Amino acid sequence: MTGFLAAGTLFGLAGSASAHPHVFVVVKSVVVFGQDGKIAAIRHSWTFDDMYSAFATQGLGPDPAKLASDLQQLAKVNVEQLEEASFFTFLRVGGRKQSDFSPATDYSISLDKDKIVTLSFTVPLKNPTTTGRALILQVTDPTYFVAFDFDKDRAVTMENAPAGCSLSINQPQGLSAADQKRLEEVAGTNDSPGQDFGFKLASRAIVACP
Fold first, then answer.
1. How far apart are CA 121 and CA 25, in angstroms?
2. What is the rounded CA–CA span in Å between residue 103 and residue 98?
3. Which residue in 127, 132, 173, 207 has its CB near the most CB atoms, within 10 A?
């Protein structure tokens, strides 16, 4: 698992917690099309749970200017280390995996009035692509160390999409009895229920264009 948030790591220090998952993240994503009609980037906004937000921001001072500088530096560290995990962003285009991303851009961390942490950043595709028959987007931690869930009201949107493109969200099917048993077995431990377990609980955003 990559480190996160240097002085109060969002992902890295969560390993000291118990039970899977350790961190809960609500995801909003934008599928960004270029002027040529190809998919050029995925823009993310990740909001962390209240307990972990409090843990991650402990020690940050009240001075507005210093706080803004600290948060921007933390965002930079975060996205650089997330690159090692392909930003937990998984794409299939026409049934084929698309996992080559350039370094993240437009990154920032914001705090709301309750000091809930939101990390925002854009992930450019190294090779912009058409949707083929369909583009499938999943945001997940395969080990289920972090639980990612699409926002219920505004999960995924499109930007600059060509006319006729559509977007739908497919919810994951329920766990099998065997998978549910495995999840219960690792509760209270730092063990992963499986290297690809997160995919079983990840929603799919499907973009289709004519």
1. 14
2. 15
3. 207
Tokens 């997330």 belong to 82
What are the structure tokens assigned to 121, written together? 């950043």
Burial (CB count <10 Å: 0-12, 13-18, 19+), residue 83:
middle
pTM: 0.86
Please give the full DSSP string across the chain, using - where no structure is assigned: ----SGGG-SSGGGGGS-SS--EEEEEEEEEEE-TTSSEEEEEEEEEE-HHHHHHHHTT--S-HHHHHHHHHHHHHHHHHHHGGGGGGEEEEETTEEE--BPPPEEEEEEE-TT--EEEEEEEEEEEEE--TT-EEEEE--TTSSEEEEE-SSS-EEEESPPTT-EEEEEPPPPPPHHHHHHHHHTTTSS--S-TTHHHHT--EEEEE--
Q: Is the alpha carbon torsion for 82, 157, 47, 200 positive or negative?
A: negative
Write the CB contacts of 68 (distance below 8 Å, at least 6 apart in sequence). Answer: none
**pLDDT tens digits, one per residue of 78-103:** 898 899 889 999 999 877 887 789 99
DSSP, residue by residue, 49-60 = -HHHHHHHHTT-
Low pLDDT (below 50) residues in the chain: 1-8, 13-19
CB distance 12 to 4 below 8 Å: yes
